[in-house]
Every structure is written in structure tokens, then in C-alpha cells.
Amino acid sequence: MNISSSIRKLTYIFVILFIGLSGGLVYWQVVKADNVTATIHNPRRCSAENSPVRGRIFDRNGVLLAESVPANVCGGFIRHYTDPSLAALIGYYVPGAFIPGIEGQYNDVLTGNSGRTALDNEVNKTLHKSPVGNDIYLTIDERIQKIAVQEFNDYHPETDPFYQQAYSRDVDGQPLALPTNKGSVVVSDPHTGEILAMVSAPGYDPNTMVQTLSKSDYSYYDRMNKDPDHPLYVRPLKELYSPGSTFKTMTLMAALDSGATTLDQPWDKKGAMGPLYYDGRQIIGDNLAFGEFTFRFPITTEYAYANSDNIVFAQLGVRTGMDKWLEYAKRLYIDQQIPFDLPTVKSSVLNADGKPLSTLQLASNAFGQGVVNMSPLQMSLIDNTVANNGVLMRPMLVSKITDKDKNPLQTIDPQQLNTVVSKDTAYQVRQAMAAVAVCGGGWHLGQNYGYQSDIVGKTGTGEVGGGLAAHGWMITQAPFTLHSTDQMPAVTIVGMRENGGEGAYTIGPAIWKIYNDIFAKGYVKANMPAPLTSEPYCANTNLWQPR
User: Fold this and answer.
1) Dihedral class, residue 526 (left if φ above 0, else alpha if ψ from -120 to 50, else beta)
2) What is the CATH number of domain 142-541?
């Protein structure tokens, strides 16, 4: 018997067994680890070592917005949110449930399953340590967010003295602002595209959502889902509305930039008041209050914009031409998917069935009715383009991603999407927006809430039919100066209230207060020009007509 040969054979057997055992361990602990963890027959699938310590979410200044805290639930952690008003943006996280918002869109980042952190977490799994996620920093300024929420919610048209004034009622004595708790606010830096605050109202409490769903209790979710006010809707990003006269801003941009009009172009009485017909249908809504505020003609394009004359703007849309008008809409990403950090819905100026627009539809679209459907985010892009001298920036919500030790993994820089109109055109549109805020539909706002922020904007009343009140809109920017085309507004605010009535009255007060707070507290630094007040500016520019 050869002993050496036997020992060698035994050694081979042990080596083969060792390789097999090692391979089995690698297979079950690495290759099939996730399957083993997930199976319902695994008694340790809910242990902390098998669940990630999810990354945190911060605002632009490092204020904590979301974190995982210890809890007696599967995995040992539960998500906690410091500002429930951001639920529409941040969403909520519960294992096994649908994950909306940033929590869902950046799930791989927050769980550490992407980038170089993913390799570290594979090692952590093998060593039975909890995987660690990465942190996300948003462009949101929590200070501005709180102001926007507070001012949007501080709305009491039945009792507030502003709404009891004669100018807050129509000719029949009916209030121009109606009670509603539904709507949106979008606050932006137009030069970078950064979203500074976003309100979707009414909202829901993400902490209650997490606490109940973690226990397989669907009562709160079901209640929110069935609520007729739809608190689960992401209104600024995923709901479409008739924009009313705020959309005249797009038409004014296109008409000025293409040479179809000038701000001082004269319009005689018929040109300004009609009657005007397209495809056998009459265009109505001169909104000039002839004999009350308007006493003589001609008026100018600027005057028509300040007083929201549908007749003039229907003609401007047709004069600009179908192809050219649609080209400017395309430059603004209308009827396209907006590149953004969260899912959005496409705004549109086209027929849903694909049929070409008729002349009547183009004319109606031009003043914001017709087949126009806009999201608040889309209206913010229009507003931002005007404020940024004609250049459209990609809207931003995520600014950077870091590991748990704050080492940067990715920084997202501002990105230019399009040059929509010239610098001169953008300035002229800002000048026309000043005419609205100081002399036109919004002049009572400065009178009541102060001119210190030099806010300019455009009002809108989006008719919806069916016996429902109109949506009240304003697109605004500040500060504005007439003395320099180079000084651009530092902040834009788009606000709307669903079925709230006239924009200047239903959402204007909240917007004016938000601006005043932002600038007074120094949350946005800006050179504040000398105030542009109604007297004597409106009389000197013929934007007010004496009897």
C-alpha cells in the first residue's frame, strides 16, 4: 500500500470539499443573498442588518428634511419627515409600498445601490452589516418654503379687510375671490432654474402615511385617496389647468420677438373691442371697461396687456402665424416632456386628437383659453424665461448627492435649455408686466401690500365651464427696474388657486407677502431699485386715462 498516494488523494478530497463549501457560501451569501433575505420563510428578513440605513434628504442650506429613525418595524427603521408640506416633492418611503417623489425617483441613491457606495454595501451585506445609503441635497430653501405655505394658507376672503373693498367685487357686487383650499405655488431662481419652494395644497402628512402603512394599515391612505380635494395630487407638476390671461405672456413674447407687434402699436376702438370673428365665431372679452377706465382710442399693445384685452391678443396670435406661434411654444417645452428630477405631465396647446389647430383655436389659445392646458411648473418656465433675459434654464430640484460623511458623489450644475427670445424682447415683456402690476389688473396689490419689492406680473382667470368658478392665476417676478435692462429679477413666483376666481385677488395677496418676507429677511439677496408706484407712473405713460 502506497501511503503517499493515499494522503495525496485525501488532500484532493479535502480541497474539493473546501472549494465546494466556499462556493456554496459565496453563492448563498452574495449571489442569492437578496433572494434569501426577501423570502417570507426567512425569520431574519426583517432584522436591521438586512435593511439599509436610508440616506437623508436636506435642503440647500443643510436643513434636515428626511431621515431614518429607529423603530419597532421591519428592518428596525422608519422614515421621518421634518416638513410635511414637502410631501408632494419628497414623497414617503415604506418597504414594499409604492414610493412617490424624491424617495422613489432616487431610491437607488438613498439605499446606496448606485455609484461607488454600492460596492461598499455588497461588502456590508456579506459581513451582515446594515447597508448605508447616500444623502441628497435639494434646491429647496426651507425658510422660503415655510413662508410660502404660511401665506398660501392664510387666505380668508370672507373676513379679510382687503376682500371687503369695493374693488374686490365685480360690477354685480359679487366677490372676485372665492373660498378654496386647493392650488399651487412655485418659487424659483430664474437664472439657475432652482426650485426654492413648492406648495401643493391641500397636502397629506407623510409621517402618518409611513406610520400606518408600516403596520399594513391602509386606513389613512384610503382616506387621502378618496378625499374629494385630492391631497395626494402633485398639483404643481402633474395637474393641468386653463391658464387664462397669464398665457398672454407667451403670445406677447412671440409677437414682440417675431416683429408682429410693438408695445406702442396703436389699436383703434374696433381693433381693441371688436366685434372680432374667426371661423364664424365671435371672440369676446375686451376687458377694457370702456366708459369706466378706458375713455378714448387708440390704445397700445402694452395697454391691452395691462388690461387683459382678449380681442387684441387673439389678433396677435393670428398675426404671429400658426407655425411661428407654435415654434415659440416648442422653445418653452410646451407639448414636450420637461426635463426635471421628478415625473411631470406635458402641457399642451394642441388638439388631443392630433388634428391641426383652426384659426379660431389659435386665436383663443393666444389669450389663454382655447385648448391650452398648463401645469404650474410650465407657467414657471414661461415666467423664468422672461426674468432671465429670454434664456430658459432646466428646472432643478436636486443639487448634489453625498455619502453619509458628506463627501460629494455628484454635483448637478444649472443647465441652459433654450434661448427663447432676445434680451430686448424679454425686457419689454417685463415692462408690460410692470404695467399690469402698477397700472392694470394688479395695481391694488401694491397699493395694499407695499411697493418695496417692485413686483411685476400677469394676472389670469382660467375659465373652466360647468358652472364652476375660474382658476385664479398670477405669474410674477421681482425686483424689477425700468432703468436697466441688465438688472434681472432675482426671484419668480407662480401661484394659482383652483376655482378661486380672479387671480389678482385670490392669489395675489399671498404672492406679495411672500416676496416682501423673502427680501426683508434677506433669504434672497438683490439690489432693490427705487419703487415704481402707480402715481405718477401710470398717468405719465398713458396707462391710466383721465376722463
Assistant:
1) beta
2) 3.40.710.10
